[in-house]
């Protein structure tokens, strides 16, 4: 990434307190360029997968963060946004997901990509791969598609019933 800060669910306590009080730091009066780029792609109707492919190194958390940043900049007058509440809800959701899938929403490493490809080639199911890599099943299928492997087999589970 270009060195720009992108939202991550483990934001500092100070940032959270500023949001709870309905204010941003004095230097934040406009969207970061990465957030603008993400929001433009969303506004043009791109899917999460298309956005992740269009911007190398991007994660789902970055996409959620861009939306969060935009809503926060709208300010406390827009009661529908409630950014502090939204962060608490998102953090709780992420905590629950990571209790079962510790690597959920973390950037993929080269080693994980190699392991994923190897397990896929060995005809492991999506559930088996997800358990090994400590990620959600949907993350496995999304990553296989992004790596161009999924089209070789319609799904990692296609081999499950084969002998």
Write the layout of secondary structure elements.
Layout: H1 13-20, H2 33-43, H3 48-54, H4 60-74, H5 83-100, H6 110-121, H7 126-133, H8 137-146
Helix pairs in contact: 1-5, 2-4, 7-8
Helical amount among residues, as a percent range? 40-55%
Global shape = globular
What is the H/E order?
HHHHHHHH
Main sheet overview: none
Distance from N terminus to C terminus (CA atoms, Å) equals 44 Å
Mean pLDDT: 77
- Strand tally: 0
Report on the architecture of this protein.
It is globular and about 55 Å long. It has helices at residues 13-20, 33-43, 48-54, 60-74, 83-100, 110-121, 126-133, 137-146. The protein has two domains: 13-100, no CATH class; 110-152. The protein is built from eight helices and no strands. With 163 residues, it is mostly helical. Mean pLDDT is 77; it is low at 1-27 and 159-163.
Summarize the structure in short:
The protein has helices at 13-20, 33-43, 48-54, 60-74, 83-100, 110-121, 126-133, 137-146.
Give the key terms.
163 residues, single chain, disordered C terminus, disordered N terminus, mainly alpha, 2 domains, 8 helices
């Amino acid at each position: 990434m270009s060195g720009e800060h992108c939202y991550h669910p483990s934001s500092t306590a100070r940032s959270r307190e500023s949001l709870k009080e309905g204010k941003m730091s004095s230097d934040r009066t406009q969207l970061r360029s990465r957030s603008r780029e993400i929001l433009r792609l969303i506004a043009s109707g791109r899917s999460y997968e298309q956005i992740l492919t269009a911007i190398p190194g991007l994660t789902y958390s970055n996409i959620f963060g861009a939306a969060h940043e935009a809503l926060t900049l709208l300010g406390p007058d827009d009661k529908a946004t409630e950014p502090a509440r939204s962060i608490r809800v998102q953090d709780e959701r992420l905590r629950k997901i990571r209790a079962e899938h510790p690597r959920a929403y973390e950037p993929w490493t080269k080693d994980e990509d190699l392991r994923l490809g190897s397990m896929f080639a060995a005809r492991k199911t999506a559930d088996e791969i997800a358990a090994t890599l400590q990620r959600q099943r949907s993350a496995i299928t999304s990553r296989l598609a992004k790596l161009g492997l999924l089209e070789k087999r319609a799904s990692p589970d296609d081999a499950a019933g084969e002998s």
